[in-house]
Amino acid sequence: MTKPKERAVDGTRPDLDGEDPATAFAALFDTHAPALRGYLAGRVGIDTADDLVAETFLVALRRRKDYDPAQAPVRGWLYGIATNLLRNHVRAEVRGYRATERLHAETAHGHDAQVAAQVDAQRQLARALARLSAPERDLVLLTSWAGLDPSEVATALNLPASTVRSRLHRVRAKLQALLTGETS
Q: Which residues, other chains included, contact 157 with Cβ-Cβ below 8 Å and sequence gap of 6+?
């Protein structure tokens, strides 16, 4: 049978696992929170420091069984917890900055590439449309840009609908050939 550890108890080495942890932690907070806050505020600012101090005492409360007053004063243990939380916070913050930077770079590069591709496609289309005859261009633009169906184009151009459909088929094939660089 093993003998339980004797726990040294005084102001710098409180027994956090005793009968009344609420009282012990209230005294611990009152004693060490201001200095911890000052240390953390110097590293990450006041608002984040307040959050980290609260989290430090929450972790300490949860892990109070890990603290042995016979090993060291509580102040070092609390600063160890706070430093680990600070490191985690800074790592998360840096990861966030890097992710934002990557997203911005991808978006900016992607957007520039999309705009360049769109401008290039518009130039190619303009060249191809310029090479069509005026009646062929009218057919394409009335169906594509104006959104008219073949019967509406037939009415607009005073042609039979069957003629519009057949001409439209040929013009689309010609336009495709012009855009892909084929000649017919």
A: 135, 138, 139, 142, 164
